[in-house]
Design brief:
This protein is mostly helical and about 600 residues long. It has helices at about 1-10, 30, 35-50, 60-70, 80, 85-95, 100, 110-120, 125-135, 140-145, 150-165, 170-175, 180-205, 210-220, 225-250, 255-260, 265-270, 285-290, 295-300, 305-315, 320-335, 335-350, 360-370, 375, 385-410, 410-435, 435-450, 455-470, 475-490, 500-510, 515-535, 540-555, 575-590. The chain is elongated, with a radius of gyration of 32 Å. It starts with a helix and ends in a 10-residue tail after the last helix.
């Protein structure tokens, strides 16, 4: 008997006399440190039941610890199987319905942590998402999406529902519960308004007026004001892009498709992108591609000329998602019903991409565009635009007729053509520097007409030179066309043609397309960095740095609509460079003739 009582006393005595014995019945930290598996399980179940009923500091500490665990081990089935989702749903509801509790102590952090924990555990495992759905997390998350607390909680609620809806079975269950329409409406509202809300409630405020818990969550106590603002911009972009990702999950559902395909919203979606703060998100183009994979979606996109033009501009840019824009256009052209509405606009842009070699994309574009060309060439089919018909004729000539002719040419004839191309190119260069830009365009055009298709390098240079002429003639569309063709021809090389990138950036600036101009300029600067790393003396020119600075201000996601970053009335960078070079050439010629170069009157 004595030995048994001694044993019991030993169990209750702490290992170290100085350590205090925990007297709390559901202590979170004691529960986590419980070594006995069966006891640990029962304690965790009790903990999750008791946690929403508590009203002490331990709640925040427990949620913060659970948040860390969920981030590090999102696939661990222990907590999802023991009631964590019911616990998180109750805590979110408590935060929404009990303002006094929410604003006491540090409870304001709890709804954020709770929604984040739900999102982390439902990210990868469909069975965890099903448990979360059955535990009733959808309605509390929808309340956060409505903005019942702040945009910070709205962000993690969208993230959580997006992860859940990423599993097909969950989408069907949400539809069965008849929540899908409201979720889609809320996601559309967030995508349209969240940037303004983030600006009004955080970025646009003085540091002293920002909510302290927002600052703590955004930076985790690391970094000053600049890092805080930059991180908030990133979070705002994520909120917008995650709302589009949530919409993407419901695109294939008929009841939701009609809501998403509203014309005004589609136009708005075209302008949504992750920006430099969130480059891994496809933004609006991802949603548009999902819509183009449905019949109703294709019809809706095809009915908006503005959407088609934006897709076309994106397809001829250095944006990481340009291939997705091309895919959208090809899906629209493949459908006979949407093709009629799209072909006249898109062919004028896509004609510049037919020689793109990655990944044989040029051939796919050619086949799609020439699908009905025989009806135009030999039949009665006519397009509403003569420009579109000429573009199709040009594709037919370069990809079919010209290839046949050059295969039949003798080696002597090919050599003669190469020689003529070299002479015309030199004449064009001389005319250009003499200031006779129109004559230079004619000579470059003649060189391109004679240049064999296999002479890719020569064609790159001539296209790029002619683009420079078009820039000085204030014809940005022609400059974009020529520079795009030059870059398509160089797409198989180690680096894209740098001069063409810079010139297209200039042309997009003339057209007021700041995003496209910025992406080209960044790609141009990236090429300069690669040159410097390879020991080729590449450096960032001042004019490129100036362009990047200007376009980054213009494309900042939190700009107010009335802000104008254009330099109206001032000479463009290309004009400044050309004027200076031309002045030096004239000065040199006058010096050769014995004229006093300092005499301004002669």
């Amino acid at each position: 008997m004595e030995s048994k009582s001694q044993t019991n006393k030993t169990k209750k005595t702490p290992k170290h006399p100085s350590e205090p014995v925990c007297t709390k019945p559901s202590c979170f930290f004691c529960t986590m440190n419980e070594p006995n598996p069966s006891l640990r399980k029962s304690k965790i179940i009790k903990l999750f039941k008791d946690l929403p009923l508590k009203n002490d500091q331990e709640q925040v500490l427990a949620l913060s610890s659970l948040w860390n665990i969920a981030m590090k081990q999102p696939n661990d089935p222990e907590f999802p199987s023991l009631g964590i989702f019911e616990c998180m749903a109750k805590l979110i509801n408590k935060g929404i319905n009990d303002k006094k509790w929410l604003l006491s102590d540090q409870n304001i952090y709890i709804p954020y942590y709770a929604a984040h924990i739900i999102g982390s555990y439902t990210m990868n495992k469909a069975q965890f998402a099903e448990k979360a759905l059955k535990s009733g997390v959808v309605l509390p998350l929808m309340e956060l999406m409505r903005g019942k607390i702040t945009w910070v909680e709205q962000r993690v609620a969208v993230r959580a529902l997006g992860h859940m809806a990423g599993h097909d079975r969950i989408v069907e269950s949400i539809i069965a519960l008849k929540h899908e329409v409201k979720i889609v409406e809320l996601a559309m509202m967030i995508a349209s308004t969240c940037l303004k809300r983030v600006y009004d409630e955080f970025i646009g405020l003085e540091h002293s007026k920002r909510l302290k818990y927002h600052c703590d969550l955004i930076t985790r106590g690391l970094g000053g004001l600049e890092i805080e603002s930059r991180k908030a911009e990133e979070w705002g972009s994520q909120l917008q892009c995650w709302s589009l990702n949530l919409l993407n999950c419901f695109v294939s559902k008929e009841r939701c498709l009609g809501l998403i395909c509203k014309k005004e919203f589609l136009v708005e979606v075209c302008g949504i992108w992750g920006g430099l703060a969130n480059p891994n998100s496809p933004g609006g183009i991802g949603l548009l591609k999902a819509l183009c994979q449905t019949k109703f979606g294709r019809q809706s996109v095809a009915n908006s000329q503005e959407v088609i033009e934006r897709l076309c501009n994106l397809s001829r840019s250095s944006d990481d998602w340009k291939l997705m824009a091309v895919d959208c256009l090809l899906l629209l052209l493949k459908d006979p019903e949407s093709r009629i509405k799209v072909v006249e606009i898109s062919v004028v842009y896509l004609v510049d991409l037919v020689e793109m070699r990655r990944p044989k994309l040029g051939d796919r574009i050619t086949q799609m565009l020439l699908q009905d060309y025989h009806k135009i060439k030999y039949g009665d089919l006519r397009l509403g635009s003569k420009k579109a018909e000429r573009a199709l004729e040009e594709i037919w000539d370069s990809k079919v007729e010209r290839k046949k002719k050059e295969k039949l040419m003798s080696k002597q004839e090919i050599r003669e053509r190469k020689s003529m191309v070299g002479k015309l190119k030199k004449q064009g260069n001389m005319s250009f520097w003499a200031g006779n830009i129109e004559k230079a365009v004619i000579e470059y055009s003649e060189a391109l007409d004679l240049c064999p298709l296999e002479m890719r390098r020569e064609r790159i240079v001539v296209y790029s030179n002619r683009a420079q002429c078009y820039l000085l003639m204030k014809n940005p569309e022609a400059a974009i066309s020529d520079t795009t063709r030059a870059m398509c021809l160089s797409s198989g090389a180690a680096r894209v043609h740098g001069k063409s990138l810079w010139r297209r950036s200039q042309a997009y600036e003339m057209k007021g397309l700041a995003r496209e101009s910025l992406m080209d300029c960044l790609e141009f600067v990236n090429g300069k960095f690669l040159m410097s790393e390879q020991g080729k003396g590449g450096r960032i020119p001042y004019y490129a740095a100036r362009m990047i600075s200007k376009q980054m201000r213009a494309t900042w996601m939190y700009n107010k609509p009335e802000e104008d970053f254009s330099f109206t009335g001032k000479p463009t960078i290309v004009e400044e460079m050309f004027t200076e070079r031309r002045r030096k050439v004239k000065k040199g010629r006058r010096k050769e003739k014995g004229v006093n170069v300092n005499d301004k009157t002669g």
